[in-house]
Amino acid sequence: MSASVPDRLAALGLTLPQAAAPVATYVATVLTGNLLVVSGQLPLEHGTLKATGKLGGAVEPETGKACAQLCLLNVLAQVQAAIGDLSRVRRVVRLGGFIACTPEFTQHAAVMNGASDLAVAIFGDAGRHARSTIGVPSLPLDAPVEVEGLFEVV
User: Fold this and answer.
1) Which residues of the chain have pLDDT under 50?
2) Whole-structure pTM over 0.85, yes or no?
3) Domains in the chain, start-ordered, CATH in brackets?
4) Per DSSP, which regions of 10-144 are E strands?
């Protein structure tokens, strides 16, 4: 892929939101060596959750997938705030997804693909990453999805 990350975002019709401030006793990012860890980000759009509730309940899988995409955009906003330029991302190393869901829900991977597919669309092969996706009983603010990330940067 020869296009820049901002060009790819624009081609996808996407813009990064402003990086959200932490709401508790933690920092949004930690840079150690060439690894940048990004704390979990919620599906905030203009400061408001895109959806609330649980997958398998009030939240449909497609809405959950869209929330995962939005979470990734919020993760990338944190990356940009931390290092100034997304072109410094050499690799998306790992994404972690938390899916608030009912006990019967089993489509966790499909929901988290919203974030994973978008990472590949934005970064190409450097966006292919290791991943964990975990179902949980609840998330902050009743968010349906939360995504965290680990990036190799230069």
Assistant:
1) 1
2) yes
3) 5-153 (3.30.1330.40)
4) 29-32, 35-41, 44-45, 48-49, 89-100, 130-136
